Amino acid sequence: MNRNLRLVWNGFIPENPIFRLALSLCPAVAVTTCVKNGLLLGLAVLFVQVFSSCTVTTFKSFIHPRIRIPAYVVVIALWVTVIDMILPVISPDVYKQVALFVKLIVVFAIIISRLELFASKEPFVPSFFDGLGMGIGFTFGLCLTGAIREFFGAGQLFGYDILGFKPLLIMILPAGGFFVIGFIMATFNWLEYKFTGKIPTSGGGH
Amino acid sequence: MKEIFKITISLTAVCLVAAIILGVVYAKTEHARKENEERIEQQTIRDLLGFKEGSGTKAPADLKVYAVYRYVLTDSKGRNSLGYLLPVKEGGYVLAEIDLDGKPGKTYKIEGDAAKLADRSARDAAVKAALPGDIRAVYAQTLFVANLGDKRLGYVIPGVTQGFKTFIKLMVSLDPSFTVTGIAITESEEDPGLGAEIEQNYFKNQFAGKTLDVLKELKVIKEPLPSDYLAALDPAVAAKRGLTKEQVKEIKEKHLKDDIYALTGATISSRAVTTGVKDTVRKFVYRIGILDDAIKKENLHVAF
User: Fold this and answer.
1) Nearest residue in chain B measured CA to CA from A32
2) Tens of pLDDT, residues A143-193
């Protein structure tokens, strides 16, 4: 498989930010009460991740290694703020729904961890695909969690009534987020054990 | 020692570049963002008055919405009074001073038209220029008075209330007899899936039709929303169940004196909105009474 494609796939399943790397779990628990929220936040993270990865990999020779963390934070904050300013102009309706989440992205662990582990060492093209893969993986994780929670907590999917009743209200309460993410992580580990025969170590190696 | 200079300069450069980019983006988007916000506000007001976009009832040409700005005036001795910026029939605006006991004071002529005064900083400057130097004016609130031709259609009042985490901004529309005709949540940061449900029709439409007397005694009850009431409150559900307009009206009438049914898992947000609506309306009714008296006493030719 082409290396770039492998990088995207890597972020999607083998190093999925939420279920394998266990990064950025707070937003994953906080906003995944329905699929739509998960999708919107996931897309916002996807953009910030790709833009930040590209910026850092382009200017990595200018950034002094001892101040790389503050410099990365400035880069992430820059892109988050730019999106926060441009989005209400392009599409006020979408902005109204994601405004809450966009500002949170500055402090997401997944983004700075990818800048530190990948974009600061690799050239432009792989960094772009790594950012893309991580963003897609994050979006996938949020959507999956959101779908399970919305289905069992509210009996809906994407806001459409499916069951017509609420089987397990606890699922859309904060505690439900921990349950769902825990169960999905366990499933991921079980699958890995089934296919490779190895007991999974803590994901990502950090 | 040399390294520390390098680090400092490097980090400063990074921040400077980021600041410049942000500044440029801000300058480019600021105008469009403000315009969008204003457009959304105007749309919300028209929605509340019953002229929803796409619902078939277009806003008639003689619908006029007048903005009335309330200022708090403080003179050099620290005495407070209220200043209402009112549109005048002949054009232009006046600032009418009313003291805290409801006695009208001086009126000042304000330069500028409605479009100019809609902008906060331009308005503050115009008010400051018209007042004598020793009086300080602080902007407090905007009220909207809607007329259909010469007839009073209603009022739209913005309000703010303490929500679950932070403030909830809302708008309440009243008819001339101060019965609530609708509410809109303009800004809130309640939890998605729980408190954020305050924006749903089945919650906020519960306020519509509550008269001033009912509103004064209004409470939040932790009971499940009756199924027929839910259908009447949410047009989408009503359409699904095939309810006619008459049936919807009948069900709404039956539940008119009901308290507000709290949202599942979001009692605090439900209470916050209810208190917010009650406070907003109570204060407004008190203020508009005083304002109307003052307008009559002073014989001001206001536009509405």
Assistant:
1) B192
2) 999 899 888 887 888 877 777 777 777 787 888 888 898 999 888 888 888
Spatial CA neighbour of B304 closest among B44, B49, B131, B85: B85
- Min Cα–Cα distance to chain A from B56, Å: 21
pLDDT at A204: 47
Q: Report the C-alpha gap between A188 and A102 in whole angstroms.
A: 28
Q: Do A150 and B193 touch (CB under 8 A)?
A: yes
**Complex ipTM, two decimals?**
0.74
Instruction: Give, in order, the Cα–Cα distances in Å from B215 to each of B9, B280, B286.
Output: 62, 11, 14
Number of domains, chain B: 3
| B25, B32, B264 ranked by CB distance to A82: nearest | B25
Do B166 and B236 reside in the same domain of the chain? yes
Round to whole Å and give the CA distance between A106 and A112. Answer: 9
pTM for the whole thing? 0.70
Whether residue B127 sits in one domain with residue B243: no
Residue B22 makes CB contacts below 8 A (sequence gap 6+) with A78, A81, A82, A85
Contact A78 B6 (CB under 8 A): no
Q: What is the pLDDT of residues A15-60, one digit of tens each?
A: 888 888 888 888 788 778 788 888 888 888 899 999 999 999 988 8
Residue B198 lies in a domain: yes
Distance CA A18, CA A28 (A): 8
Residue that the structure tokens 């749903």 belong to: B200
Tell me the β-bridge partners of B96: B84, B107
- Structural domain harbouring B206: 153-286
Q: Considering only CB atoms, which chain B residues are within 8 Å of A161?
A: none
Instruction: Please tell me if residue A70 touches chain B, with a CB cutoff of 8 Å.
Output: yes
